[in-house]
Amino acid sequence: MNNKATININDNTHDIDIITGSEKEVALDISKLRSDANLITLDAGFKNTGSCQSAITFLDGEKGILRYRGYSIEELAEKADFLEVAYLLIFGELPTQDQLNKLSDDIKERAIIDEDLRIILNSFPKSAHPMGILSSLTSGLVAFDPSAVDIDDEEDMYDAILNLLAKIPVLVAWVYRRRKGLPLEYGDTSLGYVENLAKMMFQRPNKEYIQNKTVVSALNKLLILHADHEQNCSTSTVRIVGSSHAGLFASISAGISALWGRLHGGANQAVIEMLEAIDSDGGDTKKYMLKAKDKTDPFRLMGFGHRVYKNFDPRAKIIKVAADEVLKDLGINDPILDIAKGLEKEALEDKYFVDRKLYPNVDFYSGIIYKALDIPAEMFTVMFALGRLPGWVAHWREMRIRKEPIGRPRQVYIGQTHRLFSDIKSR
Ligand code: ACO
User: Fold this and answer.
1) pLDDT tens digits, residue range 392-416?
2) How many Å apart are CA 268 and CA 377, to the nearest integer?
3) Which of 363, 395, 418, 423 is catalytic?
4) Model confidence, pTM
């Protein structure tokens, strides 16, 4: 293929380099367009703009493909554990047993938090949204270890990354337990990463904690499925904040804030809220199917459709099986979950949804699992954040190692042209 394109503007021709990715994705490199032709491109929401070259995650929405570092999400969810996937995303290869053991030991070593951070946590109102608390505490961690990360020093970089992987699950568990009015616990270093998370979250002070393998397996899958999704809103935020050479923790805290929004990580919370609303309105799923199809009604079936995946969401296929297993294993009998099953069945057989290729997305089922685990809806996005952590870290590390320039988009100015200052009395 030709590696140059030309554009013709006002009878002037400009060459534009063509960049081809390893999966044959083709992009026009317009970075010199401004200096060559005094032109910028305009693309609100960056819907058709590549912000970087990345070797971490490949996705093809048309074909329903999602791969981390070349490995398919289906294989990773079935065969790997979350820590292996975290290592893969961040460092580029699946770890050897020795590397995995070291990673796990190093995390356990760092899974301790300055007790003063509890004071900060306890100062938040009980009603505060868990995502706001998590974002603040993540920034707060910097204050307890303010040394800057030297990105040219592999050990320094490793240490910062491991600190984050170790401490964020403790914070997630603390945020959850505080909301539930339970005492804040530290983990159990004899356990694996996900088992430890489950215990830190769900153990009761007056009861022996018994691990449930189905729950741990479902959590492991959920975390893996959410671990990266290339240049989404929060990941782009982490990269752009980090591009100013803000530290890793500050960049991740910004990513958590970006994920908070309902158009991004907040969708699984919206699914459960929709199911609860249908339940309190009598549980008539047919009525809500009609509403979803009515173009004069703004109601949409939350958890159906996806901006990128237009045939199916590969993550949804995997997590649906896990959701079924969790519901069966825990013997859950919740009217909300019955409504979810009813909507799913009706939508999959309904011409409107079939014609538009609207299938349940990952958020439809992740909300169902979290609800079954008695995790409050406002905590769902916090669980998503924990899963996304390795992806954010991997992108931050890649961006710094590639020495990418500070992110600074341009704009097309549409405001007032030059005018003279008017004295306050004459306005
Ligand atoms: N319920 C009913 N109709 C829908 C839905 C839905 N959930 N989603 C799309 N449609 C319809 C649209 O009305 C449109 O119909 P038309 O062709 O007759 O006009 C058609 O399907 C195409 O929809 P678009 O809006 O063009 O699809 P788009 O890619 O813009 O939107 C989105 C994708 C935002 C995810 C949308 O499907 C939606 O709002 N879903 C519900 C919210 C949700 O679940 N979000 C989470 C996404 S997963 C994630 O972010 C991790």
Assistant:
1) 999 999 999 999 999 999 999 999 9
2) 8
3) 363
4) 0.92
Q: Does the pLDDT of residue 147 top 90, yes or no?
A: no
Distance 355 CA to ligand 1 centre (A): 13
Q: Which of 226, 228, 229, 306 is catalytic?
A: 306
C-beta of 305 in contact with ligand 1 (< 6 A): yes
pLDDT band at 1 (very low <50, low <70, confident <90, very high): low
| pLDDT tens by residue, 6-48 | 999 889 999 999 999 999 999 999 999 999 999 999 999 999 9
CA 169 – CA 383 distance, rounded (Å): 9
Confidence of residue 266 (pLDDT cuts 50, 70, 90): confident
Q: Is 356 in the pocket of ligand 1 (CB under 6 A)?
A: yes
* 129 is an active site residue: no
Contact 344, 364 (CB under 8 A): yes
Catalytic residue status for 306: yes
How far from each other are the two terminal CA atoms of the chain, in whole angstroms?
61
Atom of ligand 1 nearest to the CA of 308: 29
Q: Which amino acid is at 139?
A: S
Find the helix or strand (DSSP H, E) in which 98 lies: helix 97-110
Measured between alpha carbons, how far is residue 335 from residues 331, 338, 339, 368, 405 in Å? 13, 5, 6, 12, 52
Instruction: Note the Cα 136 to chain centre separation in Å.
Output: 17
Q: How many Å apart are CA 359 and CA 425, to the nearest integer?
A: 61
Atom of ligand 1 nearest to the CA of 361: 48
Ligand 1 near 256 CB (within 6 A): no
Residue nearest to atom 46 of ligand 1 (CA): 267
Instruction: Name beta bridge partners: 360.
Output: 304
* Strand, coil or helix: 150: coil
Please report the DSSP string for 248-277 in residue order.
HHHHHHHHHHHHHSTTTTTHHHHHHHHHHH
Alpha helices in 124-203 (DSSP H): 130-144, 154-180, 193-202
Whether 233 contacts 308, CB under 8 Å: no
- Residue 59 φ then ψ, to 5°: -135, 145
Residues contacting residue 379 through CB under 8 Å, at least 6 positions apart: 130, 175, 176, 179, 370
